[in-house]
Amino acid sequence: AQSVTQLGSHVSVSEGALVLLRCNYSSSVPPYLFWYVQYPNQGLQLLLKYTSAATLVKGINGFEAEFKKSETSFHLTKPSAHMSDAAEYFCAVSSGTASKLTFGTGTRLQVTL
Amino acid sequence: GAVVSQHPSWVICKSGTSVKIECRSLDFQATTMFWYRQFPKQSLMLMATSNEGSKATYEQGVEKDKFLINHASLTLSTLTVTSAHPEDSSFYICSPGLGGGTGGKMRGTEAFFGQGTRLTVV
Known about the structure:
Helices cover 0% and strands 53% of the residues of chain A. Chain A is globular. The termini of chain A are far apart. Chain B is mainly β. Chain B has no helices and ten strands. About 8% of the residues of chain B have low confidence. At the A-B interface, strand 6, strand 10 and strand 11 of A face strand 5 and strand 9 of B.
C-alpha cells in the first residue's frame, strides 16, 4: 500500500521568494516519487522524479526536491518564485507496478507581486 | 519521453448520451493504460486499468457498466462514458503503463499522461 500527503492545499509566496511545497509518502516498498505541475484545464507535466539514484533531484524550471528516507519526505523547492510558477502541484508515488501512481491532494501555488 | 495523444480535449454533451475518449500511444506500445479522473479542485484518482486483449480492472466504486473501457490494440485505449449525467462532469486523463510491450521503459520510473479531456454534461 502507498499514500501521499501534501501539507497545505494552498501556498502563497511573493515573486522572488523561496518556494517550498511539502510532500510526505508512505510505501511498503522502496518508492519512486514524482512531482507534477498542472496548469488550468491542462494535463500533467513532469517536473522531476526520484528513482533511487541521487537523493537530490533537479528538475525543470529551476525546481528541485530532496528524498529523505528518514523523514519519508520529498519536498519540492525553488529558490526564487516566478509569476509563471503559479499552478497546481501534485506529488505522486509509485511502487514500480507499471507506472500506476497514487497522487497527493495537490497544492495550489500562488505567486504575488 | 513517451508521446501520448488524448482526444477530444474537451466535450460538452447532453445528459443521457454517451461520450468516447481516445488515448493513443504514438511512439511505443502500451499493454496497459491507466485512466484517471479529476473532479474540480481535487486530485487525480485512478478509475481503471485497461489491458490489451483482456478485460479492464476497475477501482472500487467505479461502475464498469457505465465506464466502458476498450484496449483492442497496443496503441489505442478508449473510455466510453455511457448515459452520462452531470455528476460525471470531470477531467479524464489517460496514462500508459510502461512496464510491458515492446519499446516500454523500466517499470515505475516514469509516467506520461495524455492532455486530458474536460467532459461537461448538461
